[in-house]
Amino acid sequence: MDLQSQELAEILGITVAYLSQIEHGKRKCPDLRLIQKMAEVFGLTAEETYVFYDLYAEASGRMSPDIAEYLRSHKIAVEAIRAANDADATDDEWENFIKMLR
Asked: Which of 71, 51, 68 is nearest to 59 (CA)?
């Protein structure tokens, strides 16, 4: 998709000035609604969206939105994370657990 700044700003519901500030690093972290809209507009794959969300999380100091949503709707996942924390689970143990789930 080849969009001009004005077209992209309109689609995203923001001003061209705000888009320019994001593009030039003057605005470090757009709000979550805008991040989600960008992923949609750019047609990101699931994997690309995860990377985009992780970058958002790193820049904002928040949790990746897909993970936060999953944890809100799956309390057992929260319990599993707390149990792993209490057991001081290593990265290797987590990797084995993830392999088992796949």
From this structure: 51
Selection from 26, 21, 22 nearest residue 35 by Cα: 22
CB 55 within 8 A of CB 28: no
DSSP assignment of 7-43: HHHHHHTS-HHHHHHHHTTSS----HHHHHHHHHHTT
pLDDT in tens, 57-84: 998 899 999 999 999 999 999 999 999 9
Radius of gyration of the CA atoms of the chain, in A: 18
Residue with tokens 């897909």: 66
Residue 18 has pLDDT above 60, yes or no: yes
